[in-house]
Amino acid sequence: MKILFGAVNHQLDAKNRIRIPSKFRNSFPANEPLYFAMYNGNRIAVMPESVLGERYNFINNLTPADKKEMDAATSIFEWIEPVEEDGYGRAVIPLRFKKRAGIEKEVLTVGMGNFIEIWAQEVHDEVINPLTSEDTNVVYTKKSEK
C-alpha cells in the first residue's frame, strides 16, 4: 500500500454521503473492506481491514474478567462500522459519527500513512491549525525514544 499523505477539502452531499478522494481510495488495497473508526472524540478514520486488524489486535490480549479492560474495549469497538459504498463510490458517514465529529457540510480528508481521517473542516481548523512546530515535533521525539 502506498503511503497516504496530504489533504483534500470536499463536502457531504444532501444525503450525508462522501466520496473518498481518489488520491486516497486508489492507494488502499484493491477489494479490501474499509471501516470507519471513530477515535479521540472528533476524528473519523477510514481504514482497510488489514490496518484495522493491526491497530486493534490488542483485543486478543485482554482479560475477559477484567471489567475495566473490557469496558475500555467496548468503548472503542462500538465506534467501528463498515464503509458501505454505493455503485458511484459514495459512502454514508454513520449519523452518530457525523454528530460526534461535528460535521455539517465541509470536510477535510487527511492522509495518515496507512489510513485517512475525515474531519469537520471547522474542527480541524480549531484543533490543528494552532499547533506550533514544538507541538508537532513531539511525534518525532516519541518515535526516536523507542
Structure notes:
With 146 residues, this protein is an alpha+beta fold. It has one domain (7-145): Transcriptional regulator MraZ domain (Chemotaxis protein chec, 3-Layer(aba) Sandwich). The protein is 34% helix and 25% strand. The chain is built from six helices and eight strands; from the N terminus they run ββαββααββαββαα. It has helices spanning 22-25, 49-55, 67-77, 95-101, 121-127, 133-145; strands at 7-11, 17-19, 34-39, 43-48, 80-82, 90-92, 106-111, 116-120. Strands 1-7-8-4-3-5 form a six-stranded antiparallel sheet. It has a two-stranded antiparallel sheet with strand order 2-6. The longest helix is centred in the last third of the chain and has 13 residues, at 133-145. The chain is globular and about 45 Å long. The chain starts with 6 loop residues before the first strand and ends with a helix.
Annotated CATH architecture: 3-Layer(aba) Sandwich
CATH class: Alpha Beta
Largest sheet properties: 6 strands, antiparallel
How many beta strands in the DSSP annotation? 8
CATH superfamily, by name, is Transcriptional regulator MraZ domain
Helix content: 25-40%
Separation of the first and last Cα atoms:
25 Å
What is the CATH fold-level name? Answer: Chemotaxis protein chec
Radius of gyration: 16 Å
Tally the helices: what do you get? Answer: 6
Strand content: 25-35%
Number of domains: 1
Low-pLDDT stretches: none
Element-by-element helix/strand order: EEHEEHHEEHEEHH
Strand order of the largest sheet: 1-7-8-4-3-5
Shape: globular
